[in-house]
């Protein structure tokens, strides 16, 4: 299918992101102020060093005493200790603020993501969400952890150093500022090229990752069909593309630094020249000129750090926009009408539905399901069974007509089985957080799973899911039914829940499904007609229309479409 | 056996020209960086006793040094990064090649995600050693050059720096190491939170299906908070370490300054030389901190090289074979006394060209049988023969050219439907069309925007299970393998379609040995004969009709 997925989830504007960040920082603003105060004090302590060294030079030229020299040395040590201590505490405090903001943000993101309407997720795919919650969060975490403290310290050093130079003599500041236009121009030049290049880089690296995963995951298939060469070539091509883009990024960076070297040289020459003439004119001491030169030389590092972080900042900012975009969504209010205590659980009237206006899927569907009734939905592939199930479950909104379902009472179990990473019992408690161990065991027993769960290395506490003990598809399905029992909704919709287990496994799951559905209103999308036999009523769908409704027995007797389907199904089973 | 050490040597050895070039140039850059503070002293000295032309001459020298250091940095960095990226790229392909190797084994006991991370992150870390080596050597050179300049200014000052540096480095490392280790474990803790979030998003449909959003959010919040506590601890350790380094280098500078000051006071060195030595002492902080990260990068690179080597060295799942299949292939199969849990002593024979169904009452037995025929591994005991030649004596790839064994769980890849079915262009176009029709995949293609040329992304997850199965079955048929084994290929396909597919499958496979491992009556109905496997061994065989009529277990298994 074609991809139109990336644009379907919102991305916040820069302004909105900033507002949100400010709101997140607000409760921590006293800590932030403390961190900045510590860092300013620390940097100032460090800036005492060049003047002290200058003083040393003056002592050497002006005939000071050995005691003075040692005393200056003591001052240098004191400056180093104070700077180190204050900077250490400041950075730690700053990181605490940054990490706290990040944690708040990722929690809000996960909350919004889980509350997204399923329809939107279906259209956008989960890939975008996953990449936001992993890649973007990682980029921002990296920024919060190192870039923000580094940048803050560098920026403070730059500003305070320039102030220090002005204190020595204002002419030194003027000389130093010669470098600024070159640097400003360089950063603009760089950002213009770097931003699109890094965007392409990220895409290429993600594509490489994606292909590697598909290739490695599919290794048995690739070996069986002997298409390893083609796949190796594809991985090589993707890897080569990523490498080329990464190297282009390196080339761009080195050109960036070459330009900064020019700025460094221009500034340094100007400061040295200024010192030369000021010393000759007896306007400053040689110690002061030394201090100025050392100040400027000491700026190289922080300037490079601050400017190099421009692209980290870019990446983090775009990641933030993507996180805030989702985190900002207000959970939609469920707008389904609540049916009263009437006998009917589901009432569908004149329902039309289309994914695309030119391709209608369901036409004028009328269906009523009574409370406690078990209805099987049958029909050939492509008849619209899954779509009807999803519309009733509230995943899709009808294009026309109405669907009335009790709010919040419908559980939908699809063929997509997922086992959550962590202890198995935690997976089940997602469905009912306050379930006791006995209730969990009882649910597992009902779905015939208690036996094998007890055999697991740590029983109920065994780590399962990604990175844990690997369960078979059928076991994962049993867990899905156990969750259903624990969640205990009055109504459940089952779609292809037994399809992927292979036919022998399917029968086990059918039995399990029956147990899990006991006492519930149920709509079962039946791929195996045995599911229809045991249903209270069978609904036959053909090309998006309901063509027959009735019990298995009645429909067989009627000799219509269902009877034909049944014959195809049972012929293979009964004849010969 | 590769081993981590020799893998690292190999990977870097392949890039030795680039690495040497990079080392040379970065050394030049370091030399330039060392010369700048030295020149600052010289130029300030001119203010005391030189003329304006002296100033400009030395500024000219400074300019020349800048040109040199800038260009050597530019090209040194580029060649270093190129070496790193190329080494990583080569390793990535070696890992991919090993995973896809016909004899298999590399993916056993490893999650696909872990293998991807080895092929990307670990490969990149090994590559990064190239840069670490170049930078480390250059730092040594820079340090030596600074020492020589200092020795030229004053022997005692030079000695202080030369003798003072190693203990300083040692001290930094001593204090730094435990802090660094602690910070790393705490960071891993933090990374766990994002793993949990990704897992919840992966299971989004399940969460929403059960309306368990609130419970899931609460659980995530709990994990996120404990991760936060861990990362804050890590950040504190990191900050303490940085403070320590800052303090040590500051104290070192103070010592050099005091000794230099005393020497200048004594008239042993000039003021310019004092300034130069102060500048050089400040410069030394750079190369010294380089040692810190170079050491860490090399250690990481080694650990990564070990992980990569472990993948490359994983024993193959099956031994290689030297024999060739009989040509032309007749397609007769025989299993004699085959033991491979849960199978116990399977004996069966399949004639060339026969269409056989195999019904196993336990799905695990069926899956094991398919794996054995595809030689994903060999049986513990017994022998499987193709036209009288033992499978274990055939090279796996030669075998698979003749016997295509498709497991129930089979993957589709991101490509067009046509590309998937045609096996990267290997299948004849005519048989591709026939296979697509036989598997009823043309109907699937009909519903797609560009028909057979529609590109499936995200491994065709946007298709329904039945649609995916039909495309996968078409792919199995298209290559016209002399022997085809398929396992439950149509479980998600409706009964009417399944019956249609069964009939066409029979005519498309006429004359070629075909084994349908399934319990689907629609498929079994078109077979010549059905073999029933129960409790790990062959229980009986016969036609589908006879078995339905006579065998209760069979009826129970097949006609539920």
TrEMBL record, chain A:
<dbReference type="InterPro" id="IPR003593">
    <property type="entry name" value="AAA+_ATPase"/>
</dbReference>
<keyword id="KW-0813">Transport</keyword>
<dbReference type="GO" id="GO:0016887">
    <property type="term" value="F:ATP hydrolysis activity"/>
</dbReference>
<dbReference type="InterPro" id="IPR039421">
    <property type="entry name" value="Type_1_exporter"/>
</dbReference>
<keyword id="KW-0997">Cell inner membrane</keyword>
<keyword id="KW-0067">ATP-binding</keyword>
<feature type="transmembrane region" description="Helical">
    <location>
        <begin position="32"/>
        <end position="53"/>
    </location>
</feature>
<dbReference type="Pfam" id="PF00664">
    <property type="entry name" value="ABC_membrane"/>
</dbReference>
<dbReference type="InterPro" id="IPR027417">
    <property type="entry name" value="P-loop_NTPase"/>
</dbReference>
<dbReference type="InterPro" id="IPR036640">
    <property type="entry name" value="ABC1_TM_sf"/>
</dbReference>
<dbReference type="GO" id="GO:0005886">
    <property type="term" value="C:plasma membrane"/>
</dbReference>
<dbReference type="GO" id="GO:0005524">
    <property type="term" value="F:ATP binding"/>
</dbReference>
<keyword id="KW-1133">Transmembrane helix</keyword>
<dbReference type="Pfam" id="PF00005">
    <property type="entry name" value="ABC_tran"/>
</dbReference>
<dbReference type="InterPro" id="IPR003439">
    <property type="entry name" value="ABC_transporter-like_ATP-bd"/>
</dbReference>
<keyword id="KW-1003">Cell membrane</keyword>
<dbReference type="InterPro" id="IPR011527">
    <property type="entry name" value="ABC1_TM_dom"/>
</dbReference>
<keyword id="KW-0812">Transmembrane</keyword>
<dbReference type="GO" id="GO:0015421">
    <property type="term" value="F:ABC-type oligopeptide transporter activity"/>
</dbReference>
<keyword id="KW-0472">Membrane</keyword>
<feature type="transmembrane region" description="Helical">
    <location>
        <begin position="73"/>
        <end position="95"/>
    </location>
</feature>
<feature type="domain" description="ABC transporter">
    <location>
        <begin position="346"/>
        <end position="568"/>
    </location>
</feature>
Automatic annotation (TrEMBL), chain B:
<dbReference type="Pfam" id="PF00005">
    <property type="entry name" value="ABC_tran"/>
</dbReference>
<dbReference type="Pfam" id="PF00664">
    <property type="entry name" value="ABC_membrane"/>
</dbReference>
<dbReference type="InterPro" id="IPR011527">
    <property type="entry name" value="ABC1_TM_dom"/>
</dbReference>
<feature type="domain" description="ABC transporter">
    <location>
        <begin position="324"/>
        <end position="560"/>
    </location>
</feature>
<dbReference type="GO" id="GO:0005886">
    <property type="term" value="C:plasma membrane"/>
</dbReference>
<keyword id="KW-0472">Membrane</keyword>
<feature type="transmembrane region" description="Helical">
    <location>
        <begin position="126"/>
        <end position="151"/>
    </location>
</feature>
<dbReference type="GO" id="GO:0016887">
    <property type="term" value="F:ATP hydrolysis activity"/>
</dbReference>
<dbReference type="GO" id="GO:0005524">
    <property type="term" value="F:ATP binding"/>
</dbReference>
<feature type="transmembrane region" description="Helical">
    <location>
        <begin position="21"/>
        <end position="43"/>
    </location>
</feature>
<dbReference type="InterPro" id="IPR039421">
    <property type="entry name" value="Type_1_exporter"/>
</dbReference>
<keyword id="KW-0547">Nucleotide-binding</keyword>
<dbReference type="InterPro" id="IPR003439">
    <property type="entry name" value="ABC_transporter-like_ATP-bd"/>
</dbReference>
<feature type="transmembrane region" description="Helical">
    <location>
        <begin position="243"/>
        <end position="265"/>
    </location>
</feature>
<feature type="domain" description="ABC transmembrane type-1">
    <location>
        <begin position="21"/>
        <end position="300"/>
    </location>
</feature>
<keyword id="KW-0812">Transmembrane</keyword>
<keyword id="KW-1133">Transmembrane helix</keyword>
<feature type="transmembrane region" description="Helical">
    <location>
        <begin position="55"/>
        <end position="73"/>
    </location>
</feature>
<dbReference type="GO" id="GO:0140359">
    <property type="term" value="F:ABC-type transporter activity"/>
</dbReference>
<dbReference type="InterPro" id="IPR036640">
    <property type="entry name" value="ABC1_TM_sf"/>
</dbReference>
<dbReference type="InterPro" id="IPR027417">
    <property type="entry name" value="P-loop_NTPase"/>
</dbReference>
<feature type="transmembrane region" description="Helical">
    <location>
        <begin position="157"/>
        <end position="176"/>
    </location>
</feature>
